[in-house]
Amino acid sequence: MSRPGIPVGVLELAFGLPGASAISLQNGLNRLANHMRSDTSNVANKVQLPNIHLNMSRLRITSGTSEESRATGMTSKDRITLYQDQGVQLLLGRFVKGEIVELVPSFDLSQTARYPEVEEVVDGDTTAAKQLVERLWDVGIFKRKFHEKILVCPSCLSANVSNDYVCPNCNSIDIERKTLLEHTACGTIDSVDNFLIEGGLYCPKCNKELIEAGVDYQKLGAWFQCSQCGKRSDLPSPIHRCRSCGHIFTIKDTGFVNVYSYRISADAEEEFKRTFLVMRPIGATLEDFQYKVEMPGQIAGRSGALHRFDAVASKGSLELVVLDVVASEREIEETPIASLYAKVFDVSPTQTILVAIPRLSEKAKKLAALYRISVIEANDSQQAAELLKEHFGWTGLSGNEESIDDLQL
Length: 409
Ligand SMILES: [Zn+2]
Ligand SMILES: [Zn+2]
Ligand SMILES: [Zn+2]
Known about the structure:
Blueprint: E1 13-15, H1 22-43, E2 67-68, H2 76-83, H3 86-96, E3 106-108, E4 112-114, H4 116-119, H5 126-138, E5 142-152, E6 161-166, E7 175-183, E8 189-191, E9 196-197, E10 200-201, E11 217-226, E12 232-233, E13 237-242, E14 248-249, E15 255-264, H6 266-288, E16 292-294, E17 297-300, E18 306-309, E19 311-315, E20 319-327, H7 335-347, E21 351-357, H8 362-370, E22 374-377, H9 381-395
Parallel strand pairs: 20-21, 21-22
Antiparallel strand pairs: 1-15, 2-5, 3-4, 5-15, 6-13, 7-8, 7-11, 9-10, 11-12, 13-14, 16-19, 17-18, 19-20
Helix pairs in contact: 3-6, 6-9
């Protein structure tokens, strides 16, 4: 890897202070955009990552410590796509089980920041891990908190940057700190060099030995002397040197990268449990019956409106099964039946199934029968999948529409 660290997951880049030139800012942004583009292509086969566009409005200096949630650019479809990814499933599954509470970045000279728990689910690929974290934040699955600001080279974005001090006169790094001493007894003030004789301290004027600091002598301060031009200064100039590309720069051109810690958002956790954990056994059953399954799936109705179902299962153009899941602590009333029917009326599938966890009220069941909606009542999604298997066992071969009686198993 000749390419130095790329702070991808964390890109709140602030190139310098307001005085920084527009040209250097633009250069930095272009390089940044190139980095991100190439990184995206590297991992495209592991996690489906649409091109990340560089959004100017995100380039700002931030110093807040509060938790942020992504407000824009998040669509449910993007999240659903991510939930289908195996790496994402592993990662979010660990959040759901409580094995991970927060992703805390660890500083890394070549990578700027690393997220070890995420690396585990992308075959140890550090760059893909940061891409994935950024993606999960972009679509609103993660919320984040400011963790650290890392100084990076404005030229190559490496975090392997030194802090040096140079002579303000000739910019040489070859400077020495000189300490000024005062002999308390006689009042002589001179550089410590002139007191040092064979490892001991002796007053250059009265030749007395100085033993105890603070009693025999005082340290009055320090200055810096340049070994190249000989000039003295109180305060050498701080500069940064990039150890990766050699670029020398000051605070005015420094790149800053904000690094964040991440947690799963409560809404996303619910959505993930529902669309992935709950639906997985149901989806597997549908696939066992040779359906092509989308979870959730969208179908355009005759009205032109798009309707979303928890699962849409199809076999060619002949069979279309739509399925919704309703879970509640209590008995489920008619409302979800009515709203499912409203969608079905527009879409006209061959079969409509409502999975009710744990059960429907008697009135709701009657309504479902009236609307020709098959009902599966189950204690959990695993049991629902079993009952769904039986349901297709009864109806699958005949292809006939079933009645509600078929489901009183
Ligand atoms: Zn100098
Ligand atoms: Zn003296
Ligand atoms: Zn550099």
